[in-house]
Amino acid sequence: MMREPLLSVRELRTYFLNNKKIVRAVDGVSFDVNKSEIFGLVGESGCGKSATCRSLIRLVQSTGEIVGGEILYNGEDIVQAPEKRMAEIRGREIGMIFQEPMNTLNPLTTIGVQLMEVYQRQKLSKAEMTEKAVEMMRLVGIPDPVTRLKDYPHQFSGGMRQRAMIAIALAAQPKLLLADEPTTALDVTIQDQIIRLLLELREKLSMSIILVTHDMGVASRMCDRIAVMYAGRIMEITTSHELFYNPRHPYTLGLMRSMPLAGKGVRLEPIQGTPPDLSEEITGCPFAPRCKMACDRCRTESPALREVEPGHLSACHRAEELTGESFLTCKEVQ
Amino acid sequence: MKTKTILSKKLRPDRPYALIIGGVMLAIVLLMTFFPSLFTSYDPLEQNFAIALKPPSAEHIFGTDNYGRDLFTRVVYGARVDLKIGFLAMIVPLFVGSFIGLVAGWFGGWVDALLMRIQDIMTAFPFTILVIAIISILGRSESNVYIAIWLVGWKDYTKLVRSEVLIEKNSEYIQAVRSLGFSDLRIMFRHILPNTINSAVVYAVSDVMLCMLVAASLSFLGLGVQPPVPEWGAIISEGRPFILNAWWICALPGLALAFTGTSLSLLGEGISHILTNDGRK
Questions:
Q1: What number of other Cβ atoms are within 10 A of residue B280's Cβ?
Q2: Buried b (16+ CB within 10 A) or exposed e, B55-64
Q3: DSSP string, B16-34
Q4: Subunit contact B176:A98, Cβ cutoff 8 A
Q5: Range in A83-92, B133-142, B270-279 with the lowest mean pLDDT
Q6: Among A88, A104, A109, whose Cβ lies nearest the Cβ of B172?
């Protein structure tokens, strides 16, 4: 892990303005993504994982703004980059795929036209573009690509649309792919195919992927390292194995306990309460009101993300007390 | 089963009746526009005082006016003038207004604020009053009628397109093309415009009628097309002094106006039905 990271996010803050209140959707997030690594961002809905993801290519909604921090991509700060440079980075350096394969394609033009639009910027001839498009469709596993190029998005099934979306996103050969809940809207069998496809593409194209998901199962299958987000902050970052077998944050543990395990026959234990209102000032640890381990220090002093073991970061004052508990043991304790 | 057979024999709600009827009606008007000699053998400008103010008869089915001109002929030739005005007055605002709406909606911020305030100011005045004011500044003539309607008419298209752009702008596929690093112009014209222009096109069809009515009103007031050009509004205006004993001079060109207007409304309705049903079939 001593290599230079591909992407390095430092103290990123993205705030939104909602009903004249400032919503701190991303509040001081820092992480690194290495070359050809799959990095997961997991957490509940509204914890800021999508906002973080969109900030990375500066496509936050019009009510939001990156107010601080830096995003270093190959040493270049994306937050400060002029809009013209951003247009070059989007697509060619950092691509993105979205949650809803139903809505992410223009309904009025064929898949082929939308795919070839990417190649138009490279000033290729019509025949070369078609050839490249067919090759791309084949790469993402769309059968019969030559005829399918002429189809409209509504003629594709959900899974095929997501494949088409991936083909379009990868057409300009980005070195980093942002995948914002790419499997959430799909049923499980298709989900599995898309996961396999993304893993396969990572090997073939040696690109990095940032996977945003709320599904711990998907994250565990795909990611090399995972960051757990809560209330716009990162609670824990470590390798997926460590996260599942040696979690060092009570929130991560809570997520594990609320995850159904097939065949174990144990009751789920949900996390009590609701996430904090991000438009209010939070003092202390944002998870403290819901945390069974919370002490006075947790309610007054905000814990910093610190290295509790080599390569294992946790933002909990009492991280050391959590050794020996994993998603398996906590199920058996029941 | 029974209701189904009755339906299939009589009115089938899935048939585009509005489109068919409107289309046939407009086809008649268009035929008059391009081949007026098919309908009448008289000259619209030829005067014959011997037969002035004659009521409708087999020879002159719409009667004659105070100069003895055949009214039906004047109405038929008037279709050309009125349709031309309606179409030309609509086409420029359709393009300019939609473009302004696209720019305002896409860029937002101060660009949007500025364009929308100008649009608000235009809306604050009644349409016809503003058109009359502009014509009285420019002088009365047919070309000034166009200019006046162009200057005022764009705002409706701007409003329509802008509101659609605001919806489309945040849609996922626009986010997706933005994430590919496409330029603003490319996204605006290749992706946003085709998905937002529907309502403007539907409005444009009925706007032809509105423009025609405004032009006819202006001619009636003596501000638009000048006599002796056979324009429906102008003909109605000419017939006004004789309305008590020669009703046909005012009523029948009015009927032509209503006929054309109905055809365009039906057509607009039919088109909007097809466009909104597009995804379902």
A1: 5
A2: eeeeebebbb
A3: -HHHHHHHHHHHHHHHHHH
A4: yes
A5: B270-279
A6: A104
The token duo for A205 is: 């194209």
Q: Are strands A21-33 and A94-97 parallel, antiparallel or unpaired?
A: unpaired
What is the CATH number assigned to the segment(s) B16-275?
1.10.3720.10
pLDDT digits (tens, 9 = 90+) for B123-151: 898 888 899 999 999 988 888 999 999 99
The answer, for B173 touching chain A at a CB cutoff of 8 Å, is yes
B230 burial via Cβ count (<10 Å: 0-12, 13-18, 19+): buried
Interface probe for A, chosen from B171, B172, B189, B281 (most Cβ of A below 10 Å), is: B172
Chain B contact set for A59 (CB, 8 A) = 175, 178-179
ipTM (interface pTM):
0.74
CA distance A226 to A252: 11
| Distance of alpha carbon B9 from the chain centroid | 35
**Residue in this structure with the two tokens 């235009």, named with its chain if needed:** B122
The 10s digit of each residue's pLDDT in A191-211 is: 888 899 999 999 988 899 999
The answer to whether the bond into A182 is cis (omega within 30° of 0) is no
Beta strand spans in chain A (E): 7-18, 21-33, 38-42, 64-73, 76-77, 94-97, 176-180, 208-213, 225-230, 233-239, 306-309, 312-314
pLDDT at A230: 92
Pairwise CA distance, residues A105 & A97, whole Å: 11
CA A179 to CA A202: how far, in whole Å? Answer: 12
Closest partner residue to A103 among B171, B178, B183, by Cβ?
A: B171
Q: Does B276 touch chain A (CB under 8 A)?
A: no
- Cα(B231)–Cα(B252) distance, rounded to whole angstroms? 13
Let me know: does A226 contact A200? Beta carbons within 8 Å.
no
Taking the domains of chain B in order of start, what are their residue ranges? 16-275
Q: Let me know if A268 is exposed, middle or buried by CB neighbors in 10 A (0-12, 13-18, 19+).
A: exposed
Residue B33 region, left (φ>0) first, then alpha (ψ -120 to 50), else beta? Answer: alpha
Phi and psi dihedrals of A174, rounded to 5?
-70, 155
Residue B10 has pLDDT above 60, yes or no: no
d(CA B157, CA A90): 33
Asked if A91 is an interface residue toward chain B (Cβ–Cβ < 8 A), one would say: yes
Residue A313 contacts B where some CB pair is shorter than 8 Å = no
CA distance A36 to A206: 5
Q: Are B242 and B249 in contact (CB under 8 A)?
A: yes
Look at residues B271, B281, B89 and name the one whose alpha carbon lies nearest to residue B197.
B271
- Residue A164 is inside which H or E element, if any? helix A158-171
Which pair of tokens denotes residue B33? 């526009």
Where do we find the tokens 């933005």?
B178
Reduced to 3 states (helix: H, G, I; strand: E, B; else coil), residue B67 is coil
Q: In this structure, which amino acid lies at residue A268?
A: L
* CA proximity to A295, closest of A333, A228, A250: A250
User: Average pLDDT in the A70-89 region?
Assistant: 90
B281 at A interface, C-beta within 8 A? no
Q: What is the pLDDT of residues A121-164, one digit of tens each?
A: 777 888 888 998 999 898 888 999 999 999 999 899 888 888 89
Give the mean model confidence (pLDDT) for residues A236-265.
84
DSSP state of A204: H
pLDDT at site A264: 64
Domain residue limits, chain A: 249-334
Confidence check: pLDDT of A16 > 70: yes
